Amino acid sequence: MKKKALATMLVVSMAAAGLAGCGGGGTETTAAPTEAAAAEDDATEAAAEDDAEEAAAPAADGELIRVGIINNDPNESGYRTANDADLKAMFTEENGYDASFAYSLKNDEQITAAQKFIQDEVDYLLLSAADTSGWDSVLQDAQDAGIGVILFDRTIDASEDLYLASIVSDMDKEGETAVNWLADQGLDEYNIIHIQGVMGSAAQQGRTGALDAKVAAEDNWNLVTQQTAEWNSEKAQQIVQSVIDAGTEFNVIYAENDDMAKGAVAALDKANISHGVGKDVIIMGFDCNKWALEELLAQNWNYDGQCNPFQASYIDEVIKKVESGEEITEKTIILEEKGFDATTITEEDVEKYGI
Amino acid sequence: MKVKNKQIFIPLAALLLLALFNLAMDPSFFKISLGNNSAGDPVLTGYLMTILDYGSEVAILAIGMTLVTAACGGQDISVGAAVAIAGSVILRVLVGQGGDGTLQAPIIVAFLIACVVAMLFGAFNGVLVAIFNIQPMVATLILYTAGRSIAAWINNNELPIVTDQTFTYFGGFIPGIPVPTPFFLAVVCVVLILLALKFTNLGLYTQAVGINASSSRLNGLNPTFIKWLSFVILGLCVAVVGLIKTSRLSTINYSVIAKDIEMDAILAVALGGNALSGGKFNIMASILGAYVIQFLTTTLYKFNVSSDALPAYKAVVVIILVVISAPAVKDKLAAYGKKWKKQKEVG
Amino acid sequence: MPVKENAVLEMKNIHKSFPGVRALDGVDFSLCEGEIHALMGENGAGKSTLIKVLTGVYEKDEGDIFLKGHDKAVAIRSPQDAQNLGISTVYQEITLCPNLTVAENMYIGRGKSKLTKWRKMNADADRILENLGIPAKANQQLSDCSIAVQQMVAIARAVDMDCKVLILDEPTSSLDESEVEKLFGLMKDLRARGVGIIFVTHFLDQVYEVCDKITVLRDGRLVGEYVIEDLPRVKLVAKMLGKELDDMEEIKDENQMYKGPDERVIEVEGLQSDAGIKPFDFYIKKGEVNGFTGLLGSGRSECVRAIFAADKVVAGTVKKNGKAVKITKPLDAMKNGIAYLPEDRKRDGIVGDLSVRDNIILAAQVLRGFFRPFSKAEANKFADEYIKLLEIKTASADTPIKSLSGGNQQKVILARWLLTHPEYLILDEPTRGIDIGTKIEIQKLVLKLASEGMSVTFISSETDEMLRTCSRLVVMRDRKVVGELSKDELTQSKVMETIAGGGME
Questions:
Q1: Would you say residue A265 lies in a domain?
Q2: How far is A13 from C241, CA to CA, in rounded Å?
Q3: From residue A162, how far is each of A145, A156, A324 by CA, in Å?
Q4: Taking 80 as the threshold, does the pLDDT of residue C499 lie above it?
Q5: What is the total count of domains within chain B?
Q6: What is the mean pLDDT of residues A223-247?
Q7: Which DSSP string do the residues of B75-135 spell out, in sequence order?
Q8: What is the pLDDT of residues A258-307, one digit of tens each?
Q9: On chain C, which terminus has fewer CB atoms closer than 10 Å, C or N?
Q10: Is there a domain that residue B151 lies in?
Q11: Are residues A289 and A318 in the same domain?
C-alpha cells in the first residue's frame, strides 16, 4: 500500500511540474499560506490607507483616481516582488491614486477580488491574471459599471473590447535580442549548452524559439545539449556537470533565467573552466536580478536579458490618456526590454534595472 | 545475518545493473581525473565524483527517513521544504538582512541554529504523527505545503548571497582535499548514526515500535516518544543537507531548493529493501540506495534525458520495486529459485 | 422442509472445517417463531462460525438449512442471499454509516428507488421507528444517536427488511444497564410479533432475563438444546465448560496449599481502569500462585491489566511490600518487579519480525536503559540460556519469532519476562492455543517458580488448569469480583457455582 502511494505521488509530482518564471504561467505549491498572509497584509494596508486618505491633502485636481489592482502573489518570484513594489511606488496618493491590492495565484480568487472591486466602484481595474480564461463575464460587469480594465504582464482570452489596454512583455523579442547579441560576438563556432525553463511557459517558448531558429539556420551554431532545468539552479548545475564530465567542448551557456545561469557557473568553477568577458565560456542569463547584474559588472557573466517588471509607468500613462479624453489607439503595448552587455553595463544600470 | 545480506542485495544488484549498463554504453563514464578548480585547488572530477557529491545529500536524508519509516510506518514528504527552511535560517544568520554578503556570524553558529530550527519543525511533524496519530504522509503534507513560504518569510523574501569563500567549502571542496565535502559530511552522519545504533538501543526500540507498538508499550517502551524522536533525528539530517545545498550556490531559491528530494530519500529507503510499512530496517542499505538513485540520475543526465522526465524514470524504478516485493511475486520467484536450484543440482 | 411445527429455521448436521481446525462438527440448531434463543459457548465453541454459516459469510461443508416457507433446503452463499431470505444480523460493532441519517442507514443497499425518494423514505422510516418505540428521528444523523439507539436502528433496518430470523451478536457489550433494558424491551416486542431471535452474549444474567431457550455448543459440537427453566445457571456453566457436576468434586491436592509467609508482595485497593471494570481489591503473597477466573469477558484480564497499568488506571492504590507505589505506565510496573504476559499473544506479546533473541531480551533491555544496550555476547548468552531452559524449538536465536509455533512463541515471551527476574509474574492465558505438552510444561514451570519465591497470577479459561496450579482463586462475573475461593472451596462445582451466581437450585 505504502509503496503504491509513493508511486502515485511520484507521478503526481511529475504532473505538477511548472514554476512561474518571468511572465510565465504556473502553479506554486506554496501558494495557500502566503496568500492568507498576503490577504492579511492587504487588509491592514487598506485600513492604513483609509487613515492616510483623511489626513493627506488630495491631489491636484482634488479627486483621487481609485484603482483596484489584482496581481499574483509577490512571493512567487523576485520578478513578481519587483513588479509589486513598482506598482506600489507608482499608485500613491502623491501621484493622485487611491489604490487597493489583491493577491492570488488562483483564478477564482482573483475573479472574486475583481467582483469586490467592481462593487466598490473603483475607476480602474488593473489585472495580472493567473489564468488566461474565465474572465469574460466579470470584465463585462466592469465595463457595464463604467470601470476601465487594464491588463498588465499577462494577456487573457477575452474580447479586446473588454479592456482598454494590455501591457505585456514580448518574450519572442527577448529571445531575439539575446540571440542577436550572441551573433554579434563573432565566434568562429558556437557550441551552446542551452538550459531551458519549465517547458511550455511563455518565457521558455520565447527564449528558446529564437535560439532554435538561429541554430537551425547557421552551420557553425551547435547545441551541445538542450535540456530543461525547470528554472532550478541545482538542476542546471547537474546538467552542466554532466557535460563537463563527458568531456564535451562548449563555449556558450544560454540559460533562460539567472538562477540556472548561476548553477551552470558553479559547475564551471568546480572544473576550473573560465567564464565571462574574454574567457573561455560566454554566460548568458535572463531576468536582470540585481545579483546577476553585479556578476556582469564583475565581468564573470557576459549578457543578461531583461524581463521588464516595471510596468507601472506604462499603466499610469494609459490612465492619464483616458482621463484627458485621448483615444487609446494601440490596445497591446509592448514593454521596452533591454539586454545588458558586461562590457557596457554601469553601476547605475545595476541600481536602476536590477530587481 | 542472512536477512541482512538479502536486504542489501537489492541496492547492490541495482548498482551492478547500472554500472554494467554504463560500462557497455560508454566506459569513459568511470573515468576520474584530477584537475584544479577555479580557486586553484586540486579536485577530482568525473561522473563517479558527481555521484559521490550529489548522492551524499540523499544519503544523509535517507538516514533520518529510514528511522521515520521504521518507527512510524510512513514517510515524511516535507524534507525538501524543511531543507529550504534550514538553508534560509543559515543564510539569515550568516549575512543578516540587507547585508553585503560578508559573514555576520561564524558558520558553525549559523549551522547550529539551523539544526535547532530544523529539529523543531521535525518535532512538529513528530507531534502530529506520534501524539495525534495522523498518517505521516498526511501530517507532513502541512509542512510540505507551507515550508517554502516559511523559508521565504525567514529572509523577508530577499535572496541573500554569501560572498565569503569558506562557506563554499561545505557544498564544494576544502582546499587541498580533492574529494567533495558533502561526501565527508555524509560519512560523518553515517558514522554518528552507526555509533548511536551500536551504543544505544535506538535500533531495537525503533524496530520494536514499528513492528508492534502495542506490544512495545507493554514492554515498557514509549512508542509515542520513539516515533517523535525519529522525526527529530530526521530534522538534524535536514539541517546538514540545508548547509550543503546553500553552500553549493552561496544563496538560496526558496521555491526550487531541494525540490523533490523527499522522493529520492523515500526511494532510497525503498531501494534499500526496507519495508515502507515500518519495522525492521537496515541503514546501510538505505544509504547505498541513495547513491544508487544518484547513479541513476547522473546516468540519465549523461544520456541527455530531460530533467522533467527524471521522475518518470524513477517512477518506473518504484513500480519495479513494488512489483518484486509484492507477496504474490515473491512467492513465485522463490518457487522458481527452488526449481532452478534443483535443476542445477540434478544437472 | 421444517421438521418441527412453527419452526422458522432448522439447521441440520452442519459441518465446517478450516485448515487444521474442525470448527463445526455436525451441529443441529432450530429456532421457533416468536422465541429468543440464546446461543452459548466459550471461545472456540463454534458460535460465530455457526452464525457466519447462517448469514452466508462462510459456506458450510456439509449439512442443510431449512426455512419456513421453503420446501427444500435453502442455499445461502452470500450475506445478500441471507438477507433476501429474511435472515438479518446485528453485530457487536455497529456496521452502519455514522455520517448518514437514520433513514438513509435503514434503506441503503436496498435498491436505488427508496433512497432517491427521500421524502417517502423519511416518512416510512419515522413510521417504523415509532412503531417499534425507538427514540430516533428519520432525518437525524446516525452519529448523533447513542450507541444503544444506533443498535436499535440496525434492528429496525433488519425488521423492515421483513426478517424472519434476527441474529443479535453480542449487542449489549457496549451498552449501559438502562440501554440494555431498552434493547430488551425491543427484543420482547419483536418476539411478540413472531420474529425468531438468536441472541449471542456472554452475560449470563441477560440470558436468564430475556431468553426462552438455550443452545450450548462446545468444541464445535452441539451439547444440547434446553428450555431455560430446565437449565439452572450452574448447569449451563458446566455444559459450557464441559464438566459434569458429579465429576467435579476433586480432592484438593495438599501440595498446593499455600504455606509461605504472610507477606503481601503486591496489594491493590479500589483499583479501576478505563477498560470498564468495577473497582476491585486484590493482594498476592510471596511465593503464592493465585488466579482470576470467570467466563470470557467477565473482566479477569482487565483486572491484571490494571495492575500492570496496561490500561489507563483511573482510581485506586497499589502497595508493594507494604509501601505505596505509583504505577501509571507499564514501565513503572516493570521497575516494581511486575511482569505481565498478555492474553493476546499476537497483538500484545510478540514483536513479529524481530528475532527470537531480540524478543527475549526486549523487556530486560528496556529496564536496563536506552544508553546501556546489551553487548552481542550478552544477548546471545541470555537467548541461548532461555532457549535451552524452556526448550524453545527454533532454528536459531536469529529466527524471526513469527515463524515459530504458538507454543514456542509463548515460551519466548515467558523467557522475556523471566529474564527481568520479576517478583510478581502475571500470566494471562499463557496456555491458550498451544499444544497439550507445552501446557503442562508451563504449569509445571509456574509451580517451580512459585516454590522459588516468585508470586504468580495465573489466568486460564480452563478451570482445571487453574485448580491444578492455584492456591486461591478470585472469581469474576460481569466485570465485578464476586468471590474468592481457597482451600476446600477449590473444586470445579464450587467455582462454577460462584461464576454462575444466583444460587443453585
A1: yes
A2: 61
A3: 12, 11, 20
A4: yes
A5: 1
A6: 90
A7: ----HHHHHHHHHHHHHHHHH-TT--SS-SS-HHHHHHHHHHHHHHHHHHHHIIIIIS---
A8: 989 999 999 998 888 999 999 999 999 999 988 899 999 999 999 999 98
A9: C
A10: yes
A11: no
Distance between CA atoms of residues B74 and C473, nearest Å: 46
Query: In the numeric block, which cell numbers belong to residue C317?
Result: 492504590
Does residue B187 sit within a domain?
yes
Of B50, B137, B319, the CB nearest to A5: B137
ipTM above 0.95, yes or no: no
* Domain harbouring B18, CATH code: 1.10.3470
The residue range of the domain holding B97 is: 3-304
Domain that holds residue A254: 171-306+341-353
Side chain identity, residue B312: A
User: Strands, E, within C43-96: which ranges?
Assistant: 62-67, 87-90
Per DSSP bridges, beta strands A303-305 and A282-286 are: parallel
Identify which has the larger pLDDT, C480 or C461: C480
Q: Model confidence at C92, in pLDDT bands (50, 70, 90)?
A: low
Most confident of A165-174, B80-89, C49-58, C60-69: B80-89
Asked whether the beta carbons of A123 and A66 are under 8 A apart, the reply is yes
Residue in C363, C371, C373 closest to B220 by CB? C363
pLDDT in tens, C203-215: 777 888 899 999 9
Residue B197, domain member (yes or no)? yes
Residue B216 near residue C354, CB atoms below 8 Å? no
- Judge if A205 and A120 occupy the same domain: no
What's the CA gap between C142 and C157, in Å, rounded? Answer: 13
Q: What is the CATH number of the domain that holds A90?
A: 3.40.50.2300
Residues A260 and A175 placed together within one structural domain of the fold: yes
Contact at CB, B270 and A6, closer than 8 angstroms: yes
Residues of A within 8 A of B311 (CB-CB) are 10-11, 13-14
pLDDT at A25: 40
What would the grid cell of residue C419 be? Answer: 529474564
Q: What is the DSSP string of A102-125?
A: EE-SSHHHHHHHHHHHHHTT-SEE
Please, how many CA atoms are within 13 Å of residue A32, restricted to the half-sphere of its CB?
Answer: 8
Within a domain: A46: yes
B38 backbone φψ class: left, alpha, beta (φ>0; ψ -120 to 50): alpha
The 10s digit of each residue's pLDDT in B93-112 is 998 876 777 888 899 999 99
Name the amino acid, one letter, at B285.
Answer: A
pLDDT digits (tens, 9 = 90+) for C108-145: 777 656 666 778 888 888 888 888 788 888 888 888 88
| pLDDT of amino acid B127 | 97
Is it the case that residue A17 has pLDDT exceeding 80?
no
Instruction: Give pLDDT, residue B237.
Output: 97
- Asked whether the beta carbons of residue B308 and residue A77 sit closer than 8 angstroms, the reply is no
Contact B221, B227 (CB under 8 A): no
Which of chain B's residues have a Cβ under 8 Å away from the Cβ of A355?
none
10 Å CB burial of residue C466 (0-12, 13-18, 19+) is buried
Contact criterion met (CB < 8 Å) for C398 and B1: yes
Domain assignment present for residue A334? The answer is no
Contacts of C301 in chain B (CB under 8 A): none
**Same domain membership, residue A318 and residue A231:** no
